[in-house]
Amino acid sequence: MSEIAFFKMTGSGNDFVMLDGRSTTVREWTPDRVAMLCDRRGGVGADGLVVLTPEDSDAVRMTYWNSDGSRAAMCGNAALCSTRLARHLGMAPTGNLRLLTDAGVVQARCTGEGDTANIRLLDFPAPTEVPGLGIVPGERWIAFATVGVPHLVVRVDDIEAIDLLGRGRSLRLDARLGPEGANVNFISPAARGDPWAIRTYERGVEDETWACGTGTAAAAFALAQRSEETLPARFRSRAGALLTVTGRIEAGSASDVWLGGQGKLVFTGRWSGDSST
């Protein structure tokens, strides 16, 4: 039975299995095999899989799958983890690199020996309303934005009172969002001066994930647009880690968007879950 080395990482509670693309290839990872590796009982367990492949002295390709084996164009926390791991593996010795994602090129940086990183997300249209998509009791408003992947932001009164799985699944599959649906990010205010609380129902995982980087960026700009928050904005993930978003809105677009957060190496190992290679 073959084995493959892996790196288990977490980005503010959003966890990933990371692979070195110099010892494996993207085409080896079928949807079934990805799902097997990400399974929390029979595999390593993760919200998603990343293959990191160096392409130039300062460019690394980040290929990302959700835990169900579906490809996703972008994942903010996976990008933060990729930035840290690329430096750890010597793919980007200075800690400054370009991440080549299916959504485009993302500028990334990290310094020192800690576990934080920063990525500059691609500019995206400012959040908008979804015609016909109504709110339910306990919700204030809903906004939509595509930050690499589509997101709904739902402003609620109490993050602990929501039916995250029921309401999240309903919104994620709403026909108004198109056949691919969207991630659903619920946000509520904390005490004055404290970070906003955020919880996410993530498509492709079809469950709650403990953090969502691009969803946090969407939330920050939805709040700023409604004058409920100024940028930079801070958010506390479900895992308790801090994410920060900076940037500005001009001419109907979010620009100069930087996401800061955790890219922590938890452990390394070797997986021998199948014999396909």
Secondary structure layout plus pairing:
Elements: E1 4-11, E2 14-20, H1 31-38, E3 48-56, E4 59-66, H2 76-88, E5 96-101, E6 104-109, E7 116-121, E8 124-125, E9 139-147, E10 149-156, H3 164-172, E11 183-188, E12 196-202, E13 207-209, H4 213-225, E14 233-236, E15 242-250, E16 253-262, E17 264-271
Parallel strand pairs: 2-3, 4-5, 10-11, 12-14
Antiparallel strand pairs: 1-2, 1-17, 3-4, 5-6, 6-7, 7-16, 8-16, 9-10, 11-12, 12-13, 14-15, 15-16
Describe the structure.
By secondary structure, the protein is of the alpha+beta class. It folds into 2 domains: about 5-120 and about 265-270, Roll (Diaminopimelate Epimerase, Chain A, domain 1), CATH 3.10.310; about 125-260, Diaminopimelate Epimerase, Chain A, domain 1. The protein contains 4 helices and 17 strands. The chain has a 17-stranded mixed β-sheet that branches. Strand 9 and strand 10 (about 150-155) form a beta hairpin. The longest helix has 13 residues, at about 75-90. It is globular.
Largest sheet: 17 strands, mixed
Task: Predict the CATH topology of the largest domain.
Answer: Diaminopimelate Epimerase, Chain A, domain 1
- Given as residue ranges, the uncertain stretches (5+ residues, pLDDT < 50) are none
Supply the number of structural domains.
Answer: 2
What is the string of SSEs from the N terminus onward?
EEHEEHEEEEEEHEEEHEEEE
The average pLDDT is 95
CATH class type of the largest domain: Alpha Beta
How many β-strands, per DSSP?
Answer: 17
Q: What is the overall shape?
A: globular
CATH H-level superfamily title of the largest domain: Diaminopimelate Epimerase, Chain A, domain 1
Structural class: alpha+beta
- Please give the count of helices: 4
Instruction: Quote the beta fraction.
Output: 35-45%
The gyration radius over C-alpha positions equals 18 Å
Helix content: 10-25%
Give me the CATH architecture of the largest domain, please. Roll
Question: What's the end-to-end separation, in Å?
Answer: 9 Å
